[in-house]
Amino acid sequence: MNAGKIVLTLAAPLLLFSCVSSKKFKKSQADYAALQAQHTQLQSQLQSTINDCNNEKAVLNKQKEALENDVANLNRQVDMLKQNNNQALKQLQDLSVISATQAESIKKSMENIGAKDNYIQTLQQQMAHKDSLNMALVMNLKGAVGNIDDKDINIKVDKGVVYIDISDKLLFKSGQYEVTEQANAVLGKVAAVLKNQPDIEFMVEGHTDNVPYKGNAALIDNWDLSVKRATAVVRILQNKYGLDPAKIAAAGRSEYLPVADNSTKEGRAANRRTRIVILPQLDQFFKLLETKKN
């Protein structure tokens, strides 16, 4: 009997140690599985961002290819005109139909055609440069807000213009225009990218669905609500994040520029949004035109 008690006493620590080790092993397995799941999710998000960037790049490449084709066609027309003019000028000079002064005038006209050809090439370079800047901006924005659900924020390029659409559920409570505390995280990430591009000018647009506004008595309708939401976002970008107000415009679009069907709940949710439009720098092209005129 005493011998049995001794054996039991010696075996108890071994059994207890085995039980504790098993619990630690199972916990380690659970932690490893959680890390694996998180790693898989991050890989999926990264791949989604890469796919979006590749799609945007493909769109810009198509636009660039179309512009290059247009310029090539214009260049062919210019070359054809030059050849025709040279041939006609030579024939006229041989026949002594025109004077030397007239021939010189025609030559100057031909030189102007060459200058226009150079002008077209300059415009092409400016457009290619603008496309490159837009692509870099889109990639920076998507990298900054990559952890936000794509349904709530959408960044795209359409006809050379960059659009940032932010769902109103990230910024405002229903029927209100005061920016929520949670919205600062979204606006802060967008502002950080825009602030690194001091030459960029942009417009903040407020959009609503077609449900009539029934809220604050100070507002009449969705026009007022969309404008107030746009100016509320502008003030945050200016006062909290230090963006230059001279580079910002605010506008309200009310319900009249929908992106989805207002007859469904999902469509109305998509239409309630705040859009940041990166304005094209048209002054660069106007300067080129002014230089050409001079």
What does this structure look like?
- With 294 residues, the protein is of the alpha+beta class.
- The protein has two domains: 21-144; 148-294, 2-Layer Sandwich (60s Ribosomal Protein L30, Chain: A).
- It is 64% helix and 12% strand.
- It contains six helices and five strands; from the N terminus they run ααββαβαβαβα.
- α4 (222-240) links the parallel β3 (201-207) and β4 (248-254).
- The radius of gyration is 33 Å and the shape is extended.
- It starts with a helix and ends with a helix.
Binned, the helix content reads: 55-70%
CATH architecture of the largest domain: 2-Layer Sandwich
Q: How are the strands of the largest sheet arranged? A: 1-2-5-3-4
CATH superfamily of the largest domain: OmpA-like domain
Radius of gyration of CA atoms, rounded to a whole number? 33 Å
Q: Extract low-pLDDT stretches.
A: none
How far the N terminus sits from the C terminus, by CA atoms, comes to 117 Å
**Helix and strand pattern:** HHEEHEHEHEH
Report the major sheet: 5 strands, mixed
> Any idea of the CATH class of the largest domain?
Alpha Beta
CATH topology of the largest domain: 60s Ribosomal Protein L30, Chain: A
Strand residues, percent: 5-15%
Number of helices: 6
Count of extended strands: 5
Integer average pLDDT: 79
Shape: extended
Overall tally of domains: 2
Q: Structural class, please?
A: alpha+beta
